[in-house]
Amino acid sequence: MNVVDFLASRGGTAAAADLGRAGFSRHRIAKAVGDGALLKIRRGHYALPQDSSTYRAARELNGLLTCLSAAPGYGLWTLAPAKRLHLCVGHRSTPPGSVGHGRCRHPRHPYLPVAGLADVLIHAMNCLPQLEALVMVQCAVGRGDIALAFLRGKLGGNRNARARSVLDLVIPRADSLLEVLANTAFSRAGLQVRRHVEIPGVGEVDFLVEGSIVVETDGAPHLEPGQVKP
Question: What is the per-residue pLDDT across 155-176, written as a single tens digit (0 to 9) for each?
């Protein structure tokens, strides 16, 4: 793999230390920069010349993406992309136009300029509207990337009550983002809901509401013409 392909596989940017660990010598890196294949964006950090990603922006600002801006790095569900950069910049002032978050307390992403998953989720729960934070947390917990108990243990005290309210909405299993939103809407409406109910002759359904109404929120079979009544 050449250095350009390596950066492309890592979101378009890389630190010099990561390039060295991948076997690229200083001479090869310098030659790639001289040939215009790489761009040195600041000391010890490189990007593809055509790259304009948030990863490049984070490296240029010497920060780590977190909260909603970090969701793509972990493949987390989101309701909408971030309109501004959410950054951890340590004790420095937050760059204009970005959203600053507290100090990162957990190991960062192994190679992207992204905060650790625990920090990303904790920041999201303290920053975003409840449903926006919920879908991120549900995705990570549902995949087994992080434990609900671990997050709850990090959120003690009165100042974290808002974040804990998000954790209270996480369900044991959700097969889609829409299922999370539907479950929250039903609960807020005071409806009695059972999830993933097995119905004889039908199979498993997403929701059984008030013991009589079946609600399906996802699945290709429900897009077939035979499943739709005009």
Answer: 988 889 999 999 999 999 999 9
